Prior knowledge:
Blueprint: H1 15-19, H2 23-36, H3 43-56, E1 60-64, H4 67-77, E2 85-88, H5 94-102, E3 106-109, E4 131-134, H6 146-156, E5 159-163, E6 171-172, E7 175-176, E8 183-187, E9 201-205, H7 208-217, E10 222-224, E11 227-228, H8 239-249, H9 252-269, E12 276-277, E13 285-286, E14 292-296, H10 299-308, H11 338-344, E15 347-350, H12 358-375
Parallel strand pairs: 2-3, 2-4, 4-5, 5-8
Antiparallel strand pairs: 1-9, 6-7, 6-13, 8-9, 10-11, 12-14, 14-15
Amino acid sequence: MTQMISSDPVPYVDLAAQHAPLKADILAAVEGVLERGDFILGGAVEAFETRLAALIGVRFAVGCGNGTDALQLSLRALDIGPGDEVITPPNSFVASTSCIRLAGAMPVFVDVDETYNIDPDKIDAAITPRTKAIMPVHLTGRPAHMERILAIAAKHQLAIVEDSAQAILAEFDGKKVGSTGTLGCFSLHPLKTLNACGDGGVVTTNDEKLATRLRILRNLGLQTRDDCAEWSVNSRLDTLQAAILLVKLDHLEAWTDARRANAARYRRLLANVPGLTLPTDSPRERQVYHTFVVQAERREALRAYLSERGIGTSVHYPVPIHLHTAARELGHERGAFPVTERQADRILSLPVHNTLRPDQLDRVAATIREFYEESR
């Protein structure tokens, strides 16, 4: 008997569906802030920081305005600036590199491997006397090879700033991302797995001195209301957003499990499709699948085929950072990072969010199979 597959549209994201069952709790949390009137660094911010630190397995979490600020404030807290270098991959969102340049330092790119994460085998060759830190990016929600990166950093006495924007709750060897480096940086953007209803970010660390300085740096450099210790920016996590995030924290594990189940279903349904390469899984890792990224022959044609049938997709990211206009100053030409560039021409993110139904996943997979069968 032929299995019935839904003909409903499959959105790449569906924030309305995510928030519908939480609406009453979110409104109650917002109402609580309105009644207290503690809009700036209020009680919900400290409560969120405490819960998140415990969840990640660190001593401290410091909320800030967004994930980009989390990276910038971390580099500032480490006194990274002009003349310094920070090693990072070129296949991330531009924020990771822009934060390095905005600090006055130079990004030194290292190519990635088949996991989309920085290739540890290539890091040593990129280290110079000016290197101050390594910034691995846990792209797609898959943890970077932290054991090897930690060993390299220890050998050369380098800080590690983990760009964990896409990877909250991801683990490597049982340790959550954001807990093993010097600092961990998370985005709470609406499209992230733990998402505010607006912007938000947080930095995690086990270093009390760094945590104290981060709290000063996020608040205009004020160490007291009447004493500015150093010039800085205004990047405070909003109390309203913190209250909403506290509600969502209760659901984060379930949402993550749903994404992982969706990824497993895709792997079963799309196994052995000619022209399609699926993300792999490793027993040492707990991936959280912020994105489910395949590599596809004839990607643009496939993407158009899916779109015509009401299936949303995205590409994260079609242009590597070293090929952006702003990066011309760094002097890289096409071909400088071949793995990143080859992947950028083939990667396609399929819908994997936690509100998807099994029949919708089945429809995505069946349509992909149909495309390649018609192509043959």
